[in-house]
Amino acid sequence: MNNMISFLFLLLALPLSLALQVGFYSQSCPQAETIVQRVVQQRFNSDKSVTAALLRMHFHDCFVRGCDASILIDSTSNNQAEKAAGPNTSVREFALIDQMKTQLEAACPKTVSCADIIALATRDAVALARGPKYSVPTGRRDGKISRASEVNLPGPTFTVAQAQQSFSAQGLTINDMVVLLGGHTVGTAHCSFFQDRITNFQGTGAPDPTMDKALVTKLRGFCGSNPNVNPTAFLDQNTSFVVDNEFYNQIKNKRRGILQIDQELALDPLSSSIVSSLAANNAMFGQRFANAMIKMGNIKVLQGTAGEIRTNCRVVNKS
């Protein structure tokens, strides 16, 4: 009897996100994952930066209200949605999500959630960028609330400790954080996000001493001095469109981190040993990255009768 009580208590203690399952749509919409993969493949063929865009969208969605596709909802005259918040104004590929949703609604009306589309599309884009191939548990439902005022994401000038606090609030460990920031291996950043590091770091009148001097010179020429021109630089200067561990090698051995938080990962005792292990083993990075992406995709998901299945990812269903 005591064993049965313990077992029941364990079931009650497990998070709802464990109810997500690989192949959730195998009966209700068996072609769902194929449709998503096909559309992502077409987009990747024309623009390999789609991998970075989808990784960013997935991250920004999950860190606000959980992975509920609230980032896709458009603002209205009565509400400024998450899209309107400063950190999200450069999030892109919403039209790509719309394209997948249109095809899925035609094949299986009111069945596949927008939240699952983001997770599946990101998984497929990572694989196309020669990153790890992993299975995504599905069964998420879509949120009905999206508020710009709730967007509070870790920023590029955060210290490792500050970033760790932000990730910890989402149930993610320091290991998860360092691995997920490895997604910057295919990322870019506008010059405005690191301008101080190459010109006037923290008011010193000099560049950040932790950045490679040759890189400082290169970025100064690339970014220029016109405040109305704000180009983007690759965060991984070598394999810019490949999901691999080269990012860690650059921040560890060459001090070539573009964003302040990226370089500090290799310098701070909280994270430096993790960076070293990932830099030394690409297969390890791939496995840990896949696991961290799956874990992130479980943050505060809506299931069962919670939320809804939006028919248009940009608009909450009419009641």
From TrEMBL:
Is the Secreted keyword given for this protein?
Answer: yes
The answer to whether the entry has keyword Secreted is yes
For the site labelled Transition state stabilizer, the residues are: 56
What EC number(s) would the UniProt record show? 1.11.1.7
The catalytic residues are 60
Cofactor dependence is on: heme b; Ca(2+)
Q: What is this protein called?
A: Peroxidase
- The species this protein belongs to is Carnegiea gigantea
